[in-house]
């Protein structure tokens, strides 16, 4: 039996793109901090990380698509935070953002990481952006490195 897994060590030269939404930026900036920490501690130098901002999670799919098409990155991490409000707007933003990113991901040829918090309230969001449950941004970063490495293993 052969077990193939990606390790969490970035190969030299790896470049990461981060597509990040400004909406709820008190949360997305915290996710970004966690992601940068995860990437640099995996061996990605900070000058190999590009961070590109868009207004909200709804805009993440098109930015992600353009970043993938640029051919500059070994993985793209999306970061956003959508919090349920009083209207159905939450469902529209979440559905469009997640289905758009999933569509891009399948054709990307590189890992695309879904790093959007989709939560019922601010407390849930804060817990996932750096308090009780740690910082999901850090995990999104290590997910990106693991995916780069495992895809290389299975395609070599
Ligand atoms: N309500 C949230 C939004 N809404 C904004 C949209 O994402 C979009 O920027 C606007 O409709 C213009 O196209 N975005 C989030 O990231 N999080 C939210 O909770
Ligand atoms: C994504 C949202 O639901 C949000 O920020 C909008 O809130 P509301 O539904 O109260 O307008």
TrEMBL record:
The keyword Magnesium does not apply. Its EC number is 2.5.1.78. Catalyzes the formation of 6,7-dimethyl-8-ribityllumazine by condensation of 5-amino-6-(D-ribitylamino)uracil with 3,4-dihydroxy-2-butanone 4-phosphate. This is the penultimate step in the biosynthesis of riboflavin. The gene is ribH. Signal peptide: none annotated. GO terms for molecular function: 6,7-dimethyl-8-ribityllumazine synthase activity. The keyword Transferase applies. (2S)-2-hydroxy-3-oxobutyl phosphate binds at residues 86-87, 128. Pathway: Cofactor biosynthesis; riboflavin biosynthesis; riboflavin from 2-hydroxy-3-oxobutyl phosphate and 5-amino-6-(D-ribitylamino)uracil: step 1/2. It holds the Pfam family DMRL_synthase. It is an enzyme of class 2 (transferase). This is 6,7-dimethyl-8-ribityllumazine synthase. Belongs to the DMRL synthase family. The active site is at 89 (proton donor).
